[in-house]
Design a protein that fits this description.
The chain has 55 residues and is mainly β. It has strands at 8-14, 21-31, 39-43. Helices cover 0% and strands 42% of the residues. The termini are far apart.
Length: 55
Amino acid sequence: MSLKKGDVILAPFPFTDFSETKLRPAVVLWVSSTGSNNIIICFISSQNLIKLQPE
């Protein structure tokens, strides 16, 4: 699979006790250009937990 910056993927995300994982959406922030399988991702959520600006 060829990934590029901005792709949304499903990645295994561990529970806090590391007993299991669950697939969660993540956005690809960086992909190695050296041919290795290294990537940097950021898990994303649709939940609005905090408001950054007052309404």
